[in-house]
# Entry
Amino acid sequence: MTSPDTAARPSERSKRLTLATRQTHDTLGEKVMGHDPFASIANYAHFAMAQYLFLTELAALHTDERLIKHIPNLPERCRAQQIKDDLLDLNIKLPAPVPGAVKHPSIAQALGWVFVSEGSKLGAKMLIKQAEGLGLSTTHGARHLAEPAEGRGRNWNSFIELLDAIELTPEEDAELEQAANDAFSRFTFLLEQTYVKQPELA
# Structure
């Protein structure tokens, strides 16, 4: 029999993460859309800079041997180079790092940050269509929104299958969930920083 507790707390880690991060995920989505990133290239520049800051902060995690042991293709999942090329395509000056990036996370914490990065590839399906309205594409200005070679769904499913299979203690699972929430909050903060540091783009 399924008790109310187990119904509210799914056995699959990926499903638990989705539930645990719903509020911070929705807050970020509202913040991004509130800035109307695809209304103009100037608006898009803020969004792209936030993506650059976030994805470059996570680049080191994609070469962390502790994580690659569990997710062998993690290095190929990194999009730091693609977003850098996007900014260069648009002649946008690469923003300086913003203090507060995740440093020396535990394996569980690192997985939480990667979970958020990987999940954003699903949402990019809608974003690339809007970017195309600005004349951008997966070969110019919006490379980081491109569909993975094996497809978005398969790319995501293969990731969560590996994530769900990793053995963690309850304490580590709690760390992972907190880190995923921290990642959503971090992107929200980085987006706002692009308006503070680059007001001329507003």
